[in-house]
Amino acid sequence: MAEQVFFYGTLRTGFNRTTRAGIDTFLKFAGRASINGKLFDLGIYPAAVPATDARVWGEVFEMADAATVLAALDRIEGYRAAEPERSLYTRVRVAATLDDGRLEDVWVYFYNAPLGRAPRITSGDYVEHLKASGKNQ
Q: Is there a contact between 63 and 2 (Cβ–Cβ < 8 Å)?
């Protein structure tokens, strides 16, 4: 099976960031899913951090060319494999639960900087958070 990636923020469907990054042609939607974590609103984008007592909602995509997609995503997310401790986001593998109950191993980018006073998105769903707050995608 192709490697998969989990998007929970502005890389989700409807934001057009994957188009701007030139990776749309390498992505195939696999389903809505959730991962263990907590979600925060940084203003212009969200930040997920690992947690066992909450869920973050998003989308899983299969990558036709994982090396190309991950290299583009690493640039977008400020991830440096040689210096993960100095990266804005870190890329890790986690288990995602798809809506149909399947568990899939996916890549996800967790925030790796201080959250400051960023408010928590208690629903764990960035798109729903934007709709509820009246912000546009």
A: yes
Task: Give exposure, 18-29, as e/b (b: 16+ Cβ within 10 Å).
Answer: beeeebeebbee
Q: What is the mean pLDDT of each run of 10 residues along the chain (137 residues)?
A: 93 82 91 98 96 97 96 95 94 97 97 96 96 75
Neighbours of 61 (CB within 10 A): 27
Q: How many residues does the chain have?
A: 137
CATH class of the domain at 4-133? alpha beta
Q: What CA–CA distance (Å, rounded) separates 105 from 98?
A: 11
**pLDDT of amino acid 75:** 94
Neighbours of 5 (CB within 10 A): 24
Nearest to 61 by CA among 21, 116, 111: 21
Radius of gyration over alpha carbons of the chain, in Å? 14
> Is the pTM higher than 0.85?
yes
Helix (H) or strand (E) holding 4: strand 4-7
d(CA 49, CA 65) in angstroms, rounded, equals: 26
The two structure tokens encoding residue 114: 């201080």
